[in-house]
Amino acid sequence: MTDPLVIFTPSGKRGRFPVGTPVLTAARQLGVDLDSVCGGRGICSKCQVSPGYGSFPKHGVTVERDALSEWNSVEERYKSKRGMKEGRRLGCQATVQKDVVIDVPAESQVHKQVVRKEATARTIAMDPATRLYFVEVEEPDMHEPSGDMERLVKALESQWNTGPVTASLPVLRKLQPTLRKGNWQVTVALHQPHEEQPATLVDLWPGLYEQGLYGLAIDLGSTTIAAHLCDLSDGRILGSAGIMNPQIRFGEDLMSRVSYVMMNPGGDTEMTDAVRAAINDLAVEIASQSAVDPRAVVETVIVCNPVMHHLLLGIDPVELGQAPFALATSSALNLEAKDLDLHSLNPAAKAYILPCIAGHVGADCAAVALSEEPGKQPELTLIVDVGTNAELLLGDTRRVLACSSPTGPAFEGAQISSGQRAAPGAIEKITIDPATKEPRFRVIGCDLWSDEPGFHEATKGTGITGICGSGIIEAVAEMRMAGLVDPSGLIGSAEQCGTERMIPEGRTHAYVIHDATAEGGPKITVTQGDIRAIQLAKSALYAGARLLMDEFGADRVERMVLAGAFGAHISPKHAMVLGMIPDAPLSHVRSAGNAAGTGARIALLNRASRREIEATVGKITKVETAIAPRFQEHFVNANALPHATDPFPELAQIVTLPEVSFNTNGDGADGGRRRRRRG
Amino acid sequence: MTDPLVIFTPSGKRGRFPVGTPVLTAARQLGVDLDSVCGGRGICSKCQVSPGYGSFPKHGVTVERDALSEWNSVEERYKSKRGMKEGRRLGCQATVQKDVVIDVPAESQVHKQVVRKEATARTIAMDPATRLYFVEVEEPDMHEPSGDMERLVKALESQWNTGPVTASLPVLRKLQPTLRKGNWQVTVALHQPHEEQPATLVDLWPGLYEQGLYGLAIDLGSTTIAAHLCDLSDGRILGSAGIMNPQIRFGEDLMSRVSYVMMNPGGDTEMTDAVRAAINDLAVEIASQSAVDPRAVVETVIVCNPVMHHLLLGIDPVELGQAPFALATSSALNLEAKDLDLHSLNPAAKAYILPCIAGHVGADCAAVALSEEPGKQPELTLIVDVGTNAELLLGDTRRVLACSSPTGPAFEGAQISSGQRAAPGAIEKITIDPATKEPRFRVIGCDLWSDEPGFHEATKGTGITGICGSGIIEAVAEMRMAGLVDPSGLIGSAEQCGTERMIPEGRTHAYVIHDATAEGGPKITVTQGDIRAIQLAKSALYAGARLLMDEFGADRVERMVLAGAFGAHISPKHAMVLGMIPDAPLSHVRSAGNAAGTGARIALLNRASRREIEATVGKITKVETAIAPRFQEHFVNANALPHATDPFPELAQIVTLPEVSFNTNGDGADGGRRRRRRG
Q1: Which residue range is the domain that position A466 belongs to?
Q2: A584 and A613 inside one domain
Q3: Which residue in A146, A313, A323 is closest to B330 by CB distance?
Q4: Which of A228, A569, B153, B463 could make an SS bond with A470 (beta carbons 3.0 to 4.6 A apart)?
């Protein structure tokens, strides 16, 4: 009998451990990021984990209900005293019995995710769909009988010119006591998606209500969920927070989640429940941080990619996993927040979901279009939004094209040997001296470079733990510029490069950026496999951009906007060295931060913008990469660093790439030609 | 220690029984109508009862959880084999332990209620709000990406000209599999309350759906709930059924229910839950009788009085119990049936509730106005709808007035010594020979008069059990015409009347209609108290009619319509002898049957009629009886049989009322002056 297999998510780290090993011990031995303060005494509860049960086709295991030891008295005591979410176990108490998949929730990770989608400061004209109105209502008169609601509507019409107003039963239920408590003075929140539509009575308070109304702009990504809490009176962002998308345990990328549904009937419902619960948690967390009552949150706007869109709505996403990639619905949706089980918000809160552009180009891309307005640009503008997938918009005042490129998660540091998500301790910037081949770098959470005094002290808390997405792009580009990698992507040996930092790695080589193994820390390297993963990702991105340019009939772009968690931190020069993006004057490349989140905020704060983006999306021409022969062609041709076929004159003005070639035995040179599944 | 008190509802019968007495035994000893076929062996389940727990201020008892013996193995076996509703007990198994209130559900009564609200045949122009459309939808094309919903809407628009269509998430969820199953042919049910509003996608089926769509017209009365199941394609009534309103256990009349809420916080929720559950049960029953899948019921229209309206909607009705009788809302309501917990219908079924006219004049009266159209009559028309309350409409093409009169339940046979609801065995028609003073009568369920051959045989099954509402009116009027009662309402003695059928009853007398005590049956009499109750009720009704006539400036009406369960069975001549209704040529008095139910059907089958009645209700002038000094005056003056102050010339042409006076000692003569609480 082999020992049980233990797989941790979201890290994917796995190993076999003897029956009876505590989960916390297994996590520590595998280097899984699982917190513990009390040293395993079942007191601190920091080591909470969520074991998964059932079939995990992605991991090739089926987890039985008794995969962990039985719930014990230490856990029971903790739960009864302090409460613990359903399904959670204490990692220090539960021991491994059989093969098991264990999710480490974000709050149990020492290196909690720093979601980089911070709100971009931007002026938005305030025209929220939900507003407060204070009115004095006529008292009832039995000689002129009319309902309290009808007299309220009459008062609103005469004092505020609001037109017809409807109310749901739960709000109607509050009406009579509230009017009497306020002595016929009342403040009401009316929701009116646009002026021609009847308003809805969302809530009401006796007398003058002064606590304000709030809205949540939510950017629901495959990996992270980020939200901004905004004051609906002035648009101020009162708080921002992000959490991991709990669906990660069903599949790291979107297509694995679609596969999960195909293999597990009802799996879509599990994922729907998980993401809705996470949004509720996030809403409560952000409201509490901002000292706002979640019941005062009366609106939410959600942007997301098509698979997340369907999973959030409770629609089986299976059609999105196969041609012709048909959406159940592409229109914008005006929903009740309670239809999405967002019960932490006001009971009558509304949810607006931006329209999707196509089966691979979602409401998040529509939000980028709302924020960046490619159709209003006089110069031909390419907007690249890289999350786990890349969405691209190309256009100017004449027309706008959109497509999605299956870049995969490499740009987010996943599938990279020393890769990690953007979190304290991750290398995010790097330079390599072309002469000495020595690296210097910066890590998230510290403003010093690694060769500056005090760096060692300053990073003691976080350590130097891996490379995040922007770091790996810079590392590969710097290796190319330093002559450690040839145009085909092959890494040279210590001999070929003249530095002991090149070490053998199987039949290929790797470059050592940082080695802390002497102190029991990690060795951070860039391997040949990492270069191949980046080559695949950048080829997909570049091919998408080129496909749009072909469709537009343009051979260069005049302006480029890098958006998304990744785009905000990427160095345009390094991206161009990699050949990720088409050539353009560096001064014309701009970072837009979290443009999708900004688009969500615009839609939250300005109702007219909703109609605007609904109309805009109808005019965007969608280009499908999956079936375009030209996409394949561009993809193959884009493998080199930079591309073999496309000249990069702008880049040549700032960087001279060394002419090296390590391709002596042909090994690994065709790695980039493997076409991966869409993701 | 006294024995526990056992109170049965809805009959109100009560008695004390030793601890350990089976509920079935107690019911039999009290003459409570509780079925049993198997003789108490726990097999037939006919004797199911619903014990109530908590405080019953109306009955002056508090029922503890252990008021009955514990659930036993016989009940458990029955429940597990055949199922039994939550809270039910078997009357043959449960024994009395403490004071208890026990409801006998309609289905456990031998004499099941015959709800007399049968649908009146009537031609209604078909224009239902929900219709079926068969369409062929374009298949998705990844070069022209659009959602399946958007292509469906496009197909509907081009093939049926339907305009914008929205869908709720549960319906959207079905869209993709249904379209594919039907090979892009689909039948959809669209709900469009009127042409200018966007349609809602209610349901859809692959290919051609041929099972039809159905609607329920519900007349929700204080005492009974009646419904008609209609085919929405041709208006045919497929089935009708009625059940008792389960709220009766919280109070027989509306004001006792309002009081129940005042005394029992949360009592409104109990009543809301009870009535919604009853409507669900009724829907399932009627659908099953008609062999219709309840899921094919996509619409319901509900009419009811204001207190029932609020209790159905889940709104605390407390404001309706006190001046100025303010409704929470008076407008018509377009709801989702699921908002009313009507989960037995189609999940996306709609519910339309007609507008209320005033705090005492409800949606049921609006439905009568829709059915009888007083505002379209060239002649001044009085419409009287008598349920537990009486609603009156008076008008012609110039204007329409409405009011409500607190008649109380006497006209329905309640609060009458031998009274009972309209059910088999109840005396419904009676004549008294003016010479012999001998009665002859007919009972419900038998077409023969009591003096015809075969009557005894024909009524063996039901027995002769009491007098229903129409019966008591005829009995009192006939007693007046036969000289057994004087104009003040006093009953004569055997000596004064010359018949041994007059028997002493306390300090007054009673008239024996039927005496089966020799065979162990009942003695059915009309007592002085009964005459007083009828005098109070008829005075209230008449005073309401007179008040409207005063307001209109009319001293007589040209046309009269008697509506409602009661109106349909009442003899206009007898009503006029009583002075219940103003004087009018008998040929101008018409019975309209269940006009409220007819109004509900019209609104169900013709959406334009909804807008019509909404506009009409806004133009009806409401007259409040509770505060009109003239109402009090009319009420007092209307006490005599017929009235002392108003001449009845039309009546004089067909009936000569004997000049008798039994008022020798003044006893009871002022009984009619007591003003009762509104009900």
Answers
A1: 410-532
A2: yes
A3: A146
A4: A569
